[in-house]
Amino acid sequence: MDGSAFIPDQDAISDLTRGYLDALAKAGFKGELATDLGARVTQSTDNSIYQIMPQAVIYPRCASDLDLVMHTANAPGFGDICLYARGGGTSTNGQSLGPGIIVDTSRFMRAILEFDPDKGTIRVEPGLVRDKLNDFLAQSGRFFAPHVSTTNRATIGGMVSNDSSGKGSLVYGKTSDHVVSVECVLPGGETVELGHVPAAEIATLPGPAGELARALDALLAPHEQDIRARFPDLKRGFTGYNLKDARQANGDLNLAKLMAGSEGTLGLIKSVTLRTEPIPQHTALAVLTFASHEAGLRAVPELVKFEPHAIEFIDDKIMAAALRTPFADDVRKVLGIDGPSQPYAAHFFEVSNDDKAALDAKLALVSSGLDAFPPAIRPTGVRLVHDPAEIARVWEIRRACQGLLAGFDKNKRAVAFIEDCAVPPENMADFVAELEDVLAAKKIPLGMYGHADVGCVHIRPLMNMNAQDERQQIRAISDAVFALTQKYGGLLWGEHGKGLRGEYSETVIGRDLYQLMRRIKGLIDPANRMNPGKIARPIDDEAPILSLDAVPMRGAFDQEVTADLATEFGNALRCDGNGACFNQDETQPFCPSYKATGDRKQSPKGRASLLRAWARARALHDTAGANRIAGDLHASLETCLACKACAGAGCPARVDIPEMKSQFLEWFHQSTRRPLSDLVVGRLESLAPKLDLVGGALNAIQALPPVKSLMSGVFGLVDLPALRNRRDTLRRLRYLGVVTRTVEQLCAYPADLREGTVIVVQDCFTTFYDAEALLTQLALIRALGFSPVLLNYRPGGKPHHVRGMLAQFRKIAEANARDLSTLTDAGFTMVGVDGATTLMYRHEYPANLPDCPDFNVLLLSEWLSRTDLPKVTASDTYRFIQHCTERSLAPETADQWLRIFQQMGMDVSIVKTGCCGMSGLFGHELAHQEMSRTLYEQNWQDAVDGSTKVIATGYSCRSQVKRFSSVAPLTPAQAILAVLPNRPA
Ranges for the 4Fe-4S ferredoxin-type domain (predicted)? Predict the structure, then answer.
């Protein structure tokens, strides 16, 4: 079997694959079998530079499905089937990519099977995400220690397969150090439990596991001395295959150690039994800043002597980038940096202990000991952090490294291929210095961060992989960096697995041990059907394993996208496959449609992959191919809630799928008829003032069952909101003394009148459907001593943008932007009511108007943060939930609201949730009802139920709560106004 026969650009599926999938289905496979282009394109990339189109993707639902996968592959006629196990899909070197059949356990196999709190062991399915495992364990005061940066989407099966480590490995080691046993199905179809086998039991161990143990013992025993001498002595593992720990000095076998790091080349994992650790009772940080990253790295051997749990570092280039962001002041405060934005390097020195006094004593020892460091390596600043919330903010800066690198150069991106070098910590500074010289000679900038305590350096060169000359440097750079790791006693792969770098293995461990690896592969997978071309081939297969620069790179495909399409859909090309959108954290807004379905097509990465493929087909004038992809792409984009989470800080590449969705829909509907619901949506904002005149009658008609059926059956719309009570709104506006003014009328105001005036910018949704939000905000402005004025209503264009009616949207946006700019220039303060609409002015308007003028419409939290607020007496306790678009595009508003409530003396707790499932039109479309309800139940229901005092910033969110709950959520203005003395009614 030759796994190098790649056909990455072919969407035809072979008869062999179709026959295999048919046989699998007939055998009773319970999961899903996918051959559609969307599923395959989505799985053709990971977080590496490579792209390989699979023939099919299968999603097993249970362990017996994995048995069927192997048994069917062993049936007559299917000998050439190749299988590629996949977990989180975030590998940095193509580990799970291949032209055969992807076996993805992340979608359904997420169960916790057994937990023994007395022993501290837990058995789980391979698709369970590490954070979900720790959420469960936290209830018992325990955790699974290996802490990868992708902790919210890394699966346990993937962590075992890569033998992952991460933060804290100085103390806790690698994943394999916490694996008790691995239950897997071998390529021959046998299920075995691989774990510790005492030497005395090897001869009598029954069944397939015994046969395998005896065969492996016979292979390993003669090479014991050579293995001890040749395998690198590092905190980071060699991976694939762990010969050093698979057979111990006393003759015991630990076959789980052999499976860990084997990257799917030896079998399919059915379950893993893990050893867990007690959660330390107390944790603290010393944030250390250095004048340069060289000084910081040279200090590491001395810092390690203080026995930290972890030392993470960020180089001076990334720190300089952080200090150039709009959040620079916050970064300085969190890290304790004073002075100008000069380059700094930062180390985060973490210590943990169950005894707080002992922890404080250690921190004091560290702090005083730093004074004795030689001046060249002495920190320029030290900040001790004890508060858990502050510690979390520090780690947020560390996690932002990849995103900060992405902002260095819009034409280049931080590329992963020499991403996880590891050398002894005492050699790290010299290694890094030479590495920088290598890349400087090639005029390639880079940024670095990583795990200083164990000498692991995350190196991200900034390259344009769409340029052939830069792709051609991958070989030379890899060879040079590999040579440096050898020189300094390290490994090219120190954390993220080997992947397509297996060609270097023989140089590291020698020919004899590499031949031993091949014999192990041949013993377990003689047909070479499991992830062929990676790590090792069977001994009787003389073809070389895959070369790292002979595998198709996605930059080569992206290079074929024409300049006009690359400009329009450039963010799709910037998606690096890091998989942040695959997180399963219900407290995060990113990405709702993936959280609801578990389907990677319905994620920003999946949509970006399809957009790339579609744009390329168009660029190549492949009309049939573009139309074929367009169908899958349209289906994927239809489940996008346009929440903008992928345009915010949650996505390092900030792909902004909603913007590209609008552009695609504009193209798509040039040849495809729009749904009737678009006719309603496209006229909503302009018709609203006319409908408002007959609102009462219209509400009564709209509530009639035949009308509801008509709207549902013909237009596909349900649960449409009622229009406001117009008479009541006008009465209250008169009572408040609020007038409506045009731009021209406002510009005629004298200067002294402008200063105390606050213009409230109307939007269709709060003005006509949630007038209470508008009226209360006006009353609040009045109560705080300002003169509120309503800017005359006009459409904002939000529905047009969401549905890809960009010609109309640009016309609306151009007129509005011009007027808002005029008012800004005139010195007025403007505040929006609905956060999503207000943020549209900042994001969608500039993105769609080539010469968008500058203007400033504030969010309510931004305006209140600039305003003197009274201290009040408030007895109520509130839960506060933000609109997901606010959290994504204006993350600083959470802190603003917290400070506002604290300053006023209100008892408000901020609850972090994902998307509520409404998202404007989405929740009113019949086709999306199941997903809309699922998201509400998944993300909001627990936060809302049992509380009568809920504050929600979003109009959509409040509408959704009213649909599915008996709670009537308040706006922030309502909650604040209610506790003000002498407030307007």
Answer: 631-663
- CA distance linking residue 860 with residue 827, whole number of Å: 18
pLDDT in tens, 822-848: 999 999 999 999 999 999 999 999 999
15-104: in CATH 3.90.180.10: no
DSSP state of 679: H
pLDDT of residue 75: 96
Eight-class DSSP state of 372: G
Reported as half-sphere exposure (CB side, CA atoms, 13 A), residue 509 has a value of 30
- Residues contacting residue 357 through CB under 8 Å, at least 6 positions apart: none
Decide: helix, strand or coil at residue 704.
Answer: coil
Residue ranges of domains in the chain: 15-104, 112-278, 281-399, 560-668, 679-855, 877-979
Select from 141, 101, 89, 96 the least CA-distant residue to 117: 141
Cα–Cα distance measured from residue 196 to residue 186, given in angstroms and rounded to the nearest whole number: 18
- CB count, 10 Å around CB of 590? 27
What's the pLDDT tens digit per position in 319-351? 887 777 766 777 777 777 776 556 578 899 999
Non-local (6+) Cβ contacts of 559 within 8 A are 466, 467, 468
β-partners of residue 422 are 456, 491
Which helix (H) or strand (E) segment holds residue 295: the answer is helix 293-304
Tokens in use for 199? 């030497």
* CB-CB neighbours of 838 under 10 Å: 24
Q: How far is CA 129 from CA 108, 410, 424, 864, in A?
A: 11, 32, 30, 40
Rounded to whole angstroms, the Cα distance separating 73 from 79 reads 7
Contact residues for 710 (Cβ-Cβ < 8 A; gap 6+): none
pLDDT in tens, 159-169: 999 999 988 88
Both tokens assigned to 126: 């391979």
CA distance to 88, 435, 831, 878, per residue, from 881 (Å): 29, 47, 20, 10
Q: What type of residue is 383? A: R
Least confident stretch, 408-412, 546-550, 599-603: 408-412
User: How does residue 99 score in pLDDT terms, banded at 50, 70 and 90?
Assistant: very high
Give the closest residue to 187 by CA, choosing from 262, 238, 247, 113.
Answer: 262
679, 889, 704, 955: which is closest to 803 by C-alpha?
679
112-278: CATH number: 3.30.465.10
pLDDT for residue 14: 92
Q: Which position has the token pair 């002495």?
A: 378
Q: Which among 309, 284, 274, 307 is positioned nearest to 142, based on CA atoms? A: 274
Instruction: Round to whole Å and give the CA distance between 404 and 268.
Output: 37
CA distance 608 to 573: 7
Encoded amino acid at 680, one letter:
V
CATH topology of domain 281-399: Alpha-Beta Plaits (3.30.70)
Query: Which amino acid would we find at residue 467?
Result: A
Of 128, 124, 106, 126, nearest in space to 116 by CA: 124
The burial class, CB within 10 Å (0-12 / 13-18 / 19+), for 982 is exposed
Look up residue 793 and give its DSSP letter. P
pLDDT at 169: 87
Q: Give the chain's end-to-end CA distance (angstroms, integer).
A: 79
Q: Are 409 and 443 in contact (CB under 8 A)?
A: no
Cis link prior to 504 (omega < 30° from 0)? no
Largest distance between two CA atoms of the chain: 97
Using DSSP, how many helices (H) and how many strands (E) does the chain show?
46, 27
State how far the Cα of 575 lies from the Cα of 647, in Å rounded to an integer: 11
pLDDT above 70: percentage of residues in the chain: 97
The Cα 313–Cα 289 span in angstroms is: 10
CB of 133 closer than 8 Å to CB of 159: no
Note the pLDDT of residue 1.
Answer: 36
Q: What is the DSSP letter of 434?
A: H
Q: 762 falls in which pLDDT band (50, 70, 90)?
A: very high
